[in-house]
């Protein structure tokens, strides 16, 4: 009988896995014909999130030259490198363009079709445009993958879950707000992929509270302004009259940092330096385990500082008071944060040139404004300053930190679930919106359609309305009949609406304290409560404890998603090849 491989999810992760199967099969699979079943109700390539049928107003948040689905020599993997075009090379775009998501969807479809064309003869792919409902079957035997609307399951020798971002049930706080909204005729939009949200209940001219200031908010802002007929002329926004008034706040109270708007020149920092495979290996070998803040963060902080100061000293030496070799030696020998701060104070005269990760993470910590209007002006100044710095190569040490963040994330994925803080911090610094989006925020703010609430925003439901406040502006509060939770659902296994994951959870698949699915970091096999890897079930993606930064990889940065895809593809092919040999014996 022909071996059967089922991949649930045909978006970027499933497509990337298929590309790695095509690259590795000539060396690893010499068995009989193989059937690969892709299960996804959405078209292969883009899947749900990157489908071509969505508003052309929605952009990617990466330059077209920074998006690739293909490996290169920087990826540490056992499989062969198969280079291919970046998005800008494939689409003929300027590399600095922020392409819309429809173009990215077409690119992903082309990557999928190229992977199909490169599969060896005998490997056939079948797409099932249905939802997978559950997986059953014994650990040592064939699996059954049950599909919506199909009475018989797909039989699978191996199953790989590449589900991507998932819907989830509300947490207790959100559920209370939703219930209050139903009882009082209010509008509560839960965490969601914004392009899928029904925004029609948000009426023109009404106040809308928005909790979340990241990329989901940017999409919401676009769809409720340009998406409703408004337009920009220079630095001004000309409303259509159909827009609501958005009152936005979050834990930090500020938008994510702008994407950096200049190219790298000169030598890159030699990373990893203080947080690499050896340090990760030592952490994993500790019998008592490790604590992120106590054991991991000091290494991460030193690594990011090294990336920052390497760039500052080598590219902007006139702003330093010490030679790089001398600084590097003392920095490496420094015994802790206090010694590093003392060294930096001596070697870097301008505080603006010093890296302060705590201040970056809490820009409004302790800041108070006398009035709401004063805060609007103050935050516009903050955003203008961020735009200026992020587009000025004189501050290219920031780009050094960006490269450091990518290097660190590549190491952290080996540690499993380290809690939600790091992922949010990384996204805030390294995965923010394009600069033009922040300029649009400023225009909307000046037009009175975007109002900033502040840091540590609280939302309460009382007196028949939602009420938002922040300590940034003591005494100020705003009331509204609509609340939007502008963020993706938390990728927790226990609250996932996806029945397949819920069934796995109920059957004993292990989850981390943060609710992520535990997988073997070596190849992605799903772990049970005893830590045993399932021989026939794998999982890749943001709902696992091996989640990687972002959906796509920047070329020549050794993307960990490529390494994971390659390891899973090779493990699957070896297993299927051995299975075929035993069947033929």
Automatic annotation (TrEMBL):
Pfam family, one: NAD_binding_9
Domain (FAD-dependent urate hydroxylase HpyO/Asp monooxygenase CreE-like FAD/NAD(P)-binding) ranges: 6-165
SUPFAM superfamilies: FAD/NAD(P)-binding domain
Superkingdom of origin: Bacteria
Region (Disordered): 526-562
PANTHER family: BLR0577 PROTEIN (PTHR40254:SF1)
Protein name as annotated: Adenylate cyclase
Lineage, uppermost ranks: Bacteria, Bacillati, Actinomycetota, Actinomycetes, Kitasatosporales
């Amino acid at each position: 009988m022909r071996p059967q491989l089922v991949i649930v999810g045909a978006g970027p992760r499933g497509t990337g896995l298929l590309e790695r199967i095509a690259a590795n099969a000539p060396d690893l699979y010499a068995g009989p014909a193989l059937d690969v079943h892709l299960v996804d109700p959405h078209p292969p390539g883009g899947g749900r999130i990157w489908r071509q049928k969505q508003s052309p107003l929605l952009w990617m948040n990466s330059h077209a030259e920074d998006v690739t689905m293909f490996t290169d020599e920087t990826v540490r993997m056992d499989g062969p490198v198969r280079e291919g075009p970046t998005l800008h090379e494939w689409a003929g775009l300027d590399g600095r363009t922020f392409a819309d998501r429809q173009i990215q969807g077409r690119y992903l479809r082309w990557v999928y079709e190229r992977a199909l064309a490169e599969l060896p003869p005998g490997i056939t792919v079948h797409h099932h445009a249905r939802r997978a409902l559950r997986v059953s079957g014994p650990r040592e035997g064939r699996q059954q993958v049950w599909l919506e609307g199909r009475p018989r399951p797909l039989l699978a020798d191996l199953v790989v879950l590449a589900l991507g971002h998932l819907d989830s049930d509300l947490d207790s706080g959100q559920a209370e707000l939703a219930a209050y909204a139903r009882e009082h005729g209010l509008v509560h939009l839960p965490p969601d992929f914004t392009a899928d949200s029904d925004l029609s209940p948000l009426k023109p001219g009404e106040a809308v509270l928005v909790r979340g200031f990241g990329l989901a908010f940017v999409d919401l802002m676009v769809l409720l302004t340009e998406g409703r007929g408004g337009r920009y002329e220079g630095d001004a926004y000309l409303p259509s009259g159909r827009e609501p008034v958005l009152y936005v706040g979050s834990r930090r109270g500020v938008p994510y940092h702008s994407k950096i708007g200049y190219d790298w020149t000169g030598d890159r920092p030699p990373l990893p330096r203080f947080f690499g495979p050896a340090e990760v290996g030592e952490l994993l070998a500790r019998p008592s385990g490790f604590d992120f803040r106590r054991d991991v963060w000091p290494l991460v902080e030193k690594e990011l500082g090294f990336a920052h100061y390497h760039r500052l000293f080598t590219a902007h030496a006139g702003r330093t008071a010490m030679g790089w070799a001398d600084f590097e030696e003392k920095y490496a020998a420094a015994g802790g944060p206090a010694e590093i701060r003392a060294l930096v104070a001596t070697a870097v005269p301008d505080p603006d040139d010093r890296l302060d990760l705590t201040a970056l993470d809490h820009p409004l910590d302790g800041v108070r404004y006398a009035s709401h209007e004063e805060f609007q002006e103050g935050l516009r100044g903050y955003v203008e300053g961020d735009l200026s710095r992020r587009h000025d190569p004189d501050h290219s040490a920031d780009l050094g930190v960006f490269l450091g963040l990518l290097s660190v994330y590549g190491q952290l994925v080996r540690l499993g679930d380290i809690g939600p803080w790091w992922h949010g911090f990384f996204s805030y610094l390294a995965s923010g919106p394009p600069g033009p989006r922040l300029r649009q925020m400023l225009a909307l703010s000046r037009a009175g359609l975007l109002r900033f609430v502040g840091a540590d925003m609280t939302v309460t439901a009382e007196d028949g309305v939602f009420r938002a406040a922040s300590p940034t502006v003591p005494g100020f509060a705003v009331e509204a009949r609509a609340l939007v939770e502008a963020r993706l659902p938390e990728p927790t296994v226990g609250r996932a609406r996806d029945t397949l994951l819920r069934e796995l959870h109920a059957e004993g698949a292990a989850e981390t304290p943060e609710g992520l699915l535990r997988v073997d970091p070596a190849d992605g096999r799903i772990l049970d409560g005893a830590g045993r890897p399932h021989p026939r079930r794998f999982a890749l993606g943001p709902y696992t404890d091996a989640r990687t930064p972002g959906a796509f990889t920047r070329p020549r940065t050794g993307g960990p998603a490529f390494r994971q895809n390659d390891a899973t593809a090779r493990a699957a092919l070896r297993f299927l090849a051995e299975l075929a040999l035993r069947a033929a014996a």
